[in-house]
Amino acid sequence: MLVTGRGMRLSLFQLLLVLLKTLISVNAGITSTFIRSQLPSAVIPLDDEAFSIPKGHNAPQQVHITQGDYDGKAVIISWVTPDEPGSSNVQYGTSGKKYGLIAEGTVTNYTFYNYKSGYIHHCLVDGLEYDTKYYYKIGVGDSSREFWFQTPPKIDADAPYTFGIIGDLGQTYNSLSTLEHYIQSGGQAVLFVGDLSYADKYESDHHGIRWDSWGRFIERSAAYQPWIWSAGNHEIEYMPNLGEVSPFKSYLHRFATPYVASKSSNPLWYAVRRASAHIIVLSSYSSYVKYTPQWQWLREELKRVDREKTPWLIVLMHVPIYSSNQVHYMEGESMRAVFESWFVRSRVDFIFAGHVHAYERSYRISNMDYNVTSGVRYPVPDQSAPVYLTVGDGGNLEGLAGRFWDPQPDYSAFREASYGHSTLKIMNKTHAVYHWNRNDDGKKVPTDSVVFHNQYWASNWHRRRHLEAGGEVDC
Ligand SMILES: [Fe+2]
Fold first, then answer.
1. What is the rounded distance in angstroms from the CA atom of residue 414 to the CA atom of residue 396?
2. Ligand 1 centroid from CA 318, angstroms
3. Is residue 113 part of a domain?
4. Is 456 contained in some domain?
5. 53 Cα–ligand 1 center, Å
């Protein structure tokens, strides 16, 4: 041990690190031994029934819904008509075949290189009742089509709800397996963590066509329950060689988000509240450094979070902040440097990301003391920190990211390079059951299962906040 004051501090710090590492080693992480084929996923041909075109002249296709307001009493219904604009109206009601209500939508289209899109309709249906099944009808005459959705329970701290989490889906046979597994899971809404169709990976003539096929592909789920969208790098489609220099052009035309309801200035970042969850969507590929619009918006949105009403605070982004996979390693470091202290201070429960084509779950750790000058650089256990979950394993054509750093770092709890999806079943304001479900292995028991305690209600934090506000502790 050095005798100088500086040296003494260093020794104590090292001792602390050893103690912390000893504590972590009690919960050493798991690197699954399951090995999935490293070959790229096979793309489903365009004429496959997975992309089937509905019958009838100008029949609506690519039907999908998303939450349409801040609190879950509205949906945005979107679809495409291929031949002519037709009607943008939605007829709806609470019993099948009886559509006593009507909402008026809008229609748009766009070009991308030599592709001209169909007519893209978006219709806001608002003023809905909570916890109610609605039937809706779109299109005209014999070509009209009917679907249904269920509204969430009203905002309430104990409202149970099940979210699915899917990322980097694409349109391969593995994508289809993921989607079919998810549909069987009982999930009520999808939190989608970016990289949707991978249309940008196809021949330049097929970019638009592969957006259309993907829209038809996800309809089996997305027409019946909201998918909460966040954008990934495959949505950017910045292709100056094709004369396309407007980022997110296809994505923004096709996928609406209720960004205005959360006072956002941009559809790429926004928030919704649903049942007992407050969900914040961030854009990894839009500016977020200090003073930018996204930074300012997030600062204000975190102030609007009310854990007494929505105990579960969930953040979605595309690029993971903590990942021990060698692919895309540390690409999330810049966002960590900007936002991590806010996530910890706000007691975020979960941060879901995609981008890395594998699955990984972290322990609760933070690295807010990182200091490029002093050399402090290790993440440490932090019970105030979120759990970071990477679910970029939807099944796209690029294949799996199978190379993890070895040995497994202390912050990594479980990791496996397989395709799959997750479900988060919120039970009440204190507990949620989380599963990561690997595709195709025929097991009934999901591969990674954890019971999570809420970061607000299952800790002493809310008691302190309540007392500071002059209240009495009631639980
Ligand atoms: Fe990505």
1. 22
2. 7
3. no
4. yes
5. 28
Q: pTM to 2 decimals?
A: 0.91
Range of the domain at 10: 1-31
String of b and e for 306-332 (b: at least 16 CB within 10 Å)? ebebbbbbbbbbbbbbbbbbebbbebb
Cα–ligand 1 centroid distance for 168 (angstroms):
7
pLDDT tens readout for residues 418-475: 899 999 999 999 999 999 998 876 665 568 999 999 999 987 666 666 666 665 443 3
* Residue 89 confidence (pLDDT): 98
For residue 297, being part of any structural domain is answered with: yes
CATH number at residue 283: 3.60.21.10
121, 122, 318, 328: the active-site residue: 328
Query: 16 and 162, same structural domain?
Result: no
Total count of domains within the chain: 2
pLDDT digits (tens, 9 = 90+) for 99-146: 999 999 999 999 999 999 999 999 999 999 999 999 999 999 999 999
Same-domain pairing of 329 and 197? yes
* CB within 8 Å of 403: residues ≥ 6 apart: 325, 326, 327
216/362 same-domain check:
yes
Is 207 considered catalytic here? no
Element (H, E) at 273: strand 270-274
Cα(311) to centroid(ligand 1), Å? 29
Residue 159 lies in a domain: yes
